[in-house]
Design goal:
Layout lengths: L7 E3 L2 E3 L3 E3 L12 H14 L4 E8 L12 E2 L3 H6 L1 H9 L3 E7 L6 H4 L1 H6 L5 E3 L5 H8 L7 E3 L2 H20 L4 E4 L6 H6 L14 H4 L1 H14 L4 E7 L15 H14 L3 E6 L15 H5 L4 H8 L2 H17 L8 H10 L5 E2 L6 H8 L11 E4 L1 H5 L4 H4 L32 H13 L6
Parallel strand pairs: 3-4, 3-13, 4-5, 4-6, 6-9, 7-8, 9-10, 10-11, 12-13
Antiparallel strand pairs: 1-2
The chain binds flavin mononucleotide (FMN) and iron/sulfur cluster (SF4).
The site of iron/sulfur cluster has 14 residues, from helix 17.
InterPro entries: Aldolase_TIM, NADH_flavin_oxidoreductase, OxRdtase_FMN_N
Pfam family, one: Oxidored_FMN
Keywords: Flavoprotein, Oxidoreductase
């Protein structure tokens, strides 16, 4: 059985250990400071010894498709070439880096961000099919704003080719692999999900056909970027909303079957993630972010995003209900990962609520007679709280070593305004300051 310090092969690339930084929005954009912002966000994890850095979602097209403000686009080869400064620096520390490719589809800013929508009145959202009645109802009630363009068959192939082109630019810029945003309600999940996908061409109609988009994306990436390791998140839409509101969704068994087929298609690793069919807190389980909503300095920006004070208060109320529904649950994807790992022989990466060294070893199977639940363990929010977290967790740290992040989600809501991704809870930041002074973030 493996330990956190053991190396792992993914698609022919050696990852020096089994700890990864899960994809997290950096809000670096594409401006002159983009590479420096990414370096500030990602290099500390590599310096602290983390084996694999997953850069947050980047968009494969030049317009539309961003789930949140400030996302980086990777459609332009000249821009992506500049990212070699980032990949070189990550490699200097002995770590590996993959970039996550994404298009938001019906989860794009143009459906929910009022100010952005006003500024870009002609921006359509790419849709796999006409939005389901539940989303159309939210449109009629004024919570969302849909103006969808349903992709023709040719346009689906063209979108898959954009994933391939961006992957090729990334491989040229020195990325060690490509990660697909398959389970965060973006367009990949929309193709896989019976909730969204009602197509009757080769991309819809059966579970196999709903996976065809990922098969074509795979082929495009292989053709344009070669044998670069290919990782994807895999969704199971188990959390919610439940029947009778949503009857068509991916069960846990559907998610396991997706992973099994992805291995056959040629994917090199999978990240099983339980996620809702809509954008909610199921992928960031934790507390209601009281401090983030009460921050008066952000109220105007929230109002611009949500379309006024009344709407902001409604979103906050919905957030409160969700925090009860999706309370923190340690290692909440463990059972899904375990089921997938029984069915595939490619590495399974686990993330979501992993917080302690002893728990990581248990998931990797070291201290247990059970089969491992996964082959690598990742965290996201804890890296906002402690960018150099690797130094504290690796090199045989004691079992009880626990991250500082309290999963309070104060970092999540401000990102709707384009605010940078960072920990926003002063008690946690003070504890980090104390640990910094003790020198625990220096590599042993
Ligand atoms: C602010 C924020 C941004 C995120 N951005 C992405 C992303 O770009 N792509 C993605 O696949 N997941 C994203 N996630 C989900 C994380 O990768 C991770 O699965 C989730 O936060 C659960 O892990 P944690 O409990 O360790 O935070 C994001 C999560 C947060 C909190
Ligand atoms: S604000 Fe800080 S403590 Fe709270 S979830 Fe985000 S990183 Fe963790």
């Amino acid at each position: 059985m493996a330990t956190l310090e053991d190396s792992l092969d993914i698609g022919g690339v050696t990852i020096p250990n089994r700890l990864y930084r899960a994809p997290l929005l950096e809000c670096a954009g594409n401006g002159p400071d983009a590479v420096d912002t990414l370096l500030d966000d990602l290099e500390p994890a590599a310096e602290s010894g983390v084996g694999l850095i997953c850069q947050g979602a980047t968009i494969v097209r030049g317009d539309g498709g961003c789930a949140a403000p400030g996302m980086t686009r990777v459609h332009d080869p000249d821009f992506v070439e500049r990212l070699s400064r980032l990949t070189d620096r990550i490699h200097d520390h002995g770590s590996r880096i993959v970039v996550q490719l994404e298009h938001g589809g019906l989860r794009s800013m143009e459906t929910w961000h009022a100010e952005y929508r006003r500024e870009q009145p002609d921006l359509e959202q790419l849709a796999v099919s006409e939005p389901p009645w539940q989303l159309r109802a939210l449109d009629r009630l004024g919570f969302l704003s849909y103006d969808p363009h349903v992709l023709s068959t040719d346009e689906v192939y063209e979108l898959a080719a954009d994933f391939g082109r961006s992957a090729a630019y990334a491989a040229d810029a020195g990325y060690d692999g490509i990660h697909l945003a398959g389970a965060n309600m973006g367009i990949v999940q929309q193709f896989c999900s019976p909730f969204y996908n009602r197509r009757n061409d080769e991309f819809g109609g059966s579970p196999e056909a709903r996976l065809e988009f990922l098969a074509v994306v795979h082929d495009e990436i292989r053709e344009r970027a070669g044998d670069v390791p290919l990782i994807t998140k895999v969704p199971a839409e188990t959390p919610a909303p439940s029947s009778p509101i949503v009857q068509r969704k991916l069960s846990l068994e559907d998610g396991v079957e997706l992973a099994r087929r992805l291995e056959k298609i040629g994917y090199d690793a999978v990240v099983p993630v339980q996620t809702s069919v809509v954008w909610d807190m199921s992928i960031v389980r934790g507390a209601y972010p009281d401090r983030a909503w009460k921050n008066e300095g952000l109220h105007d920006a929230y109002d611009a995003a949500f379309g006024g004070t009344a709407r902001r208060k409604l979103v906050a109320a919905a957030n409160r209900i969700q925090s009860l529904q999706y309370d923190f649950d340690p290692a909440w994807n463990e059972a899904f990962c375990r089921r997938v790992r029984e069915q595939v022989s490619i590495p399974v990466l686990a993330e979501g609520g992993i917080r302690e060294r002893g728990q990581m070893d248990r998931l990797l199977g070291e201290a247990d007679t059970k089969e491992p639940a996964c082959d690598m363990v990742g965290m996201a929010r804890p890296f906002y709280a402690e960018p150099r977290l690797g130094a504290r967790l690796l090199e045989d740290a004691p079992d009880e070593t626990r991250v500082l992040c309290e999963s309070c989600n104060n970092c999540t809501v401000p990102q709707v305004t384009g605010a940078p991704g960072m920990c926003r809870t002063p008690t946690v930041l003070r504890k980090r300051g104390d640990l910094e002074r003790e020198g625990v973030y220096e590599r042993r």
